[in-house]
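Summary: Need help interpreting a holo structure output

Steps to reproduce:
1. Submit the protein chain below together with the SMILES for S-adenosylmethionine.
2. Request a joint structure prediction with the ligand placed.
3. Inspect the structure token block that comes back.

Expected: a single structure record containing both the chain and the bound molecule.
Actual: see attached output.

Input attached:
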Amino acid sequence: MTGRELAFQVLRRVEEGGAFASRALDAALAQAGALDPREAGLATELVYGTLRRALSLDAALARHASRPLAEVDPAARVALRLGAYQLLHLGTPPHAAVSEAVSLARSAEHGRAAGFVNAVLRALARDPRPAPAPALAEDPAGHVALAEALPRWLAEEWVAWLGPEEALLLARAMNQPAPLTLRAQDRAALATRLAAARLDVRPALHAPEGLVVTGASVSAVARAAAGAPFQVQDEAAQLVSLLAAGELRGRDARVLDACAAPGGKTFHLAELLGPGGEVVALEVHPRKAEELRKEAERRGLGGRVRVVCADASKPVPGLAAGSFDAVLVDAPCTGTGTLRRHPELKLRRAAGDPARMAGPQRALLAACAGYARAGAPVTYSVCALSRAEGPEIAAWAAGQGLRRAPPPPGFPSAVLDAAGDLLTLPHRHGCDGFYGVRFTAG
Ligand SMILES: C[S@@+](CC[C@H](N)C(=O)[O-])C[C@H]1O[C@@H](n2cnc3c(N)ncnc32)[C@H](O)[C@@H]1O
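--- attached output ---
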């Protein structure tokens, strides 16, 4: 199998089957077995690049298509985007880009669609220009949307929230590959092992347990680590656990992690606490809760992590009000802060989604704040960059009587916004986009 064929297969799973690109790509690469590393690299570039640029590729293709791309057979649409990405972004010779896209469409048994793919890509190859973007000063959201292939509604949201220049930098950074970031309790020891194996490793900029590895896969890191424990986790996610409970380091405290699976923050919190500490990890989905429990055992944290499968937005039997030293609500969200890792979200999320998520987010925060003892911190976080899921939730909670609390001592001020809340942005901080706000229980 070639890299192009593999990319086509993965992109079809994303487009037609609703798969996550990263998981579908990992699974396809594993299944392909001994694929030439160059072909595997090409497949990765094609999958991520095509999804990152899909909206502007569609705009460029639409100039040459006789019917709207939304009405085209999905396999043909994927073949068109793959061909257009190679023509406009990879400098692939036109003949190769067109003929390979056509044969991919044909392999999907869509003879008629292959003719359409051929005609549209040939026209694009004769005039290989992206659709022109309006000037930033005239139509800021239109410029950001078209120049960086962002949905118009999200470009409008970022422009209104952060201003045109910042929104453009953010959208641009979201089109760059995300680094491989690890968390290790003994960061220095892990860094030494990775460096000894000639991996390119450096400390994360803001998170004290974070390491950034360049040019290596997770399995290469695992081999080099030779048993030294680590977890793959973005730096911003590490900062959330520290915001929630940084001052409890080494203490035998109780922490509630209300939305816990797959468990990155649960395990971080458990490692932070002293040997007699406990993290109660709530997760509403039984399968995810079970996987979380098993992973806690595997990491040797079973004694410190108690997984409870329950809906955290409703009273949870057995959990007493005022019984935790810190509460974290890492709420389900639109995920728009993670577009570098999940570019398919550009195509899946819609304008009304942030407001739609805000209802359950408020319910979770309201229900869980009461589990904190008086004076203990209650932290709300999302890996989403929208006002509705971030600052507007904070304002609503303040209106409900929750008082904003300062971050724990030593927390890096570089990742705080003007209101003192956590706001990480990939172009400024190098990590995923997260928002977090900390309150004090009354
Ligand atoms: C953003 S993810 C949490 C990520 C996790 N904190 C981590 O660091 O790995 C949100 C999680 O909350 C779960 N969830 C959604 N609604 C919930 C609810 N009402 N009660 C408990 N868990 C919920 C989802 O299934 C999902 O696993």
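--- end attachment ---

Reviewer comment: Residues 140-175 form one domain. Residues 237, 259-265, 282-285, 288, 311-313, 330, 332, 364 surround S-adenosylmethionine (CB under 6 Å).
Status: needs-info
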